[in-house]
Amino acid sequence: MTTTNKLRRRNTLLFLSFVLPAAIYMVLMVIFPIFYNIAISFKNVDLMNFARGGSEFVGLQVYKDIFEDPILGTSLKNTLVFTFWCLLFQFPIGFAIAMLFSRSFPGAPALRGINFIPWMIPMVAVAGIFKYMFNADIGIINRLLTSLHIISEPIQWLAYGDTAMASVVVANIWKGVPFNMILLATALTTLPEDVYEAAIIDGASPVQRFFRITVPLLKPAMLSVLTLGFIYTFKVFDLIYVMTGGGPGASTEVLSSLAYRFSFTEYNFSEGAAVANVLFVLLMIVGLFYIHLVNKEDRERSGK
Amino acid sequence: MKKFLSIVMVSLLAASFVFAGGSKESAAADDGKTTIELWYHISPNQAAILLEMVDKFEEENPDVVVETQSIAFAEIKKQLTIGAAARQVPDVTLCDTVDNASFAAAGVAVDITDEVEAWGEIDNYFDAPRMSAMYEGRYYGLPYYSNCLAIMYNKDIFDEMGVPYPTADWTWDDFVRLAKELTTPEHYGLTMCLYRSEEGTFNVLPFIWQAGADWDSLDTPEAAEALTMINDLYQGGYMSKELISMTQADMTSALFASGKSAMMVAGSWLNTNIQNENPDLNYGVVTFAHGPANAASCIGGGNIMMLKDDNKEASWRLMKFLSEPENSLYYNEKCGYISPREDAVAMSELWTTDPILSVYAEQLSTSLPRGPHPRWPEVSSAIQTAFQSVLSNNATVEAALATAAATIAEIEG
Fold first, then answer.
1. What is the domain range of residue B343?
2. What would the pLDDT profile of B66-112 be if each residue is shown by its tens digit?
3. Chain A interface, mutation test: which of B241, B247, B255, B384, most A Cβ atoms within 10 Å?
4. Fold type of domain A69-303
5. What does the alpha-carbon distance between residue A151 and residue A15 come to, in Å, rounded to a whole number?
6. Nearest-CA residue of chain B relative to A51?
7. What does pTM read for this prediction?
8. Do B392 and A249 touch (CB under 8 A)?
9. Are B198 and B122 in a shared domain?
10. Pairwise CB contact (< 8 Å): A50 & B85
11. Least CB-CB distance to B381: which of A49, A161, A265?
12. CB B78, CB A264: distance < 8 Å
């Protein structure tokens, strides 16, 4: 055996020792569950045969069943509606607060820290607090609205579909704003000062500076924040589970809560897995789109 | 860094050996004793009573050791299902009555029909709990504790408004009239659980039975009549709109115990919640109002199942011991339930003379089990979606029931 071979072998071993832990972790914790989930969605696993074994391969039957069930369409629609309204408010509000904190004023760092608190509170706690606040009889939101004479009768927030959806959206916006804020604020600090100085000398107004400098320079960061925000919002579970349980009826049922309901309330593991896979595919498309955007951005920048 | 990584990896490996090796070794103790494992999902106070009984059993049966394991109420079905797939189940477990049939059909619960028949005591049980332990004519469990729903009423509200208390012979007309009459800006006439969970099904199903329908006949005028009555009371403001998102425990403390509701569909175990919230509440209980068909109620509670036949003899001895009339009486009295055994109820002073519990004991004899159906959770889920869509104005009574009936027909196959 030559020395180079020995060296090469040693290098391979070294290489493996770096890669293996991460690879083992990925296989056990990420890849195996995903493939297991895909596998059982092509079988008919339910409570009856989960324990005894004897589930059969049924091809696309489970997917056919869930796509024929109107609940899947309803849940998908609810998920999209929820995500749309959340992002529509979360992002601009987070951006505005980030802009505010990009200026230095007394107490700014402390206030920025305080603004981040909602993001650190566990979602289950947020959901519990908001469920209480939206309570029609004793909740603070009706109290506030009636005392400001905006409404005369208490609104039954969680009792009807549209208001229940509005309630979970509001709760999620409150929770999500700091996430948008902190990422955009960080991105804002990386913008070069000299461009702004030059613009001021050239007589650009603050509005022009915002739309002509800040927005274009922030575009990569904004895309990241929007995509990550989309993914976080789209896979919402705990908020819905605690605040409405997907109800009333199925008016706030989202894909993740539907997957949970199929798997762990109705014990129809295959249907639950199939819904989870639908969610997975949709999010993967968003993820691929994001990677594509990032790459494009990188290419453009290195090209210049 | 490399060193650090290798340390981490080695310790992970070591840990996995420890965990792999540590799990299974208790089963065959060398002193000739049989060890059986018992799982339960009841509250800590109730578990204390159960453990007292287990100690007594071990005293009387020195050849058996019982290892107990507490599982959260909401988790036990999941744990048993996952455990069954991995062949890691206890010898004996408590479970919710409504799940006994599922575990029987799934082959998780052991058929104990021969033991039950040799025992010769099963005829002393009330019908509804006894039926909940059966699947396709065979026994897969023994009822251990029972409860059922009835109507609690706030005597002070009735007195204040000069309305006489409801009596056991009341009808749906009286029920609806009272719910409306007793609604004022200060309190609602009625409270019942309309939550999207098994609790909601538990509360709504009695009315469907009373109208003359059942879970497998939801697309009938009878079922529509029941749901229409509930919906009219709900939309008319005679019940809180919050009930759609409240559990039974929530509604008891927020509405009934605080004097904000004149009547409540409630089980006997909620007495404990009322005692904790407002011990001075002046209330009574009456059996359900007579509907067009009957005045049936719904049973809840728990059964004991055997899951392994390795230690069948010792496991069955434990199940029999817990089910002896005196022991059944002791456990159920202490825990605020009613014994599923008619002979134990007759022995008890509490259930025959207590103004509240005696009503529940009486209601138990006209109660029915949910299902029993191996895929009850799916049936129940269809019922929940039906009543919630109606209450939230998303569907008419007939349309919602037709959808539910179609879903259930599909489940039936």
1. 33-147+300-368
2. 999 999 887 888 888 888 888 889 999 999 999 999 899 888 999 99
3. B241
4. MetI-like fold (1.10.3720)
5. 67
6. B85
7. 0.82
8. yes
9. no
10. yes
11. A265
12. yes
